[in-house]
Amino acid sequence: MSTKEKIQEQGSVDTLEQKNNEIVLYNDDVNTFDHVINTLIYACEHTPEQAEQCSIIVHYKGKCTVKTGAYKELEPRCSMLLDAGLSAEIV
């Protein structure tokens, strides 16, 4: 019977961590559900179901994260939300 020796190699893995930012959408008393849903579909490329769920969360909870990613990717999307009259910010 032979014995096999297991050797575990030790190596380091360097990972480049990039901080993800979020677009947070806030509730207001001005915009309709349809407007918010259509804007999320356009600006954040949500599916109709995603946009509807986010609009409901915003309505009942006061805010909702609608998109996550690098700041430079989120900035134009957040600007589209603001231009449409929604209250949003990148955090």
Automatic annotation (TrEMBL):
Gene3D superfamilies xrefs: 3.30.1390.10
Pfam families in UniProt: ClpS
Organism superkingdom: Bacteria
Gene Ontology biological process terms, A to Z: protein catabolic process
Annotated Adaptor protein ClpS core domain residues: 18-83
Record-linked InterPro entries: ClpS_core (IPR003769), Ribosomal_bL12_C/ClpS-like (IPR014719)
Protein name: Adaptor protein ClpS core domain-containing protein
Originating organism: Xanthomarina gelatinilytica
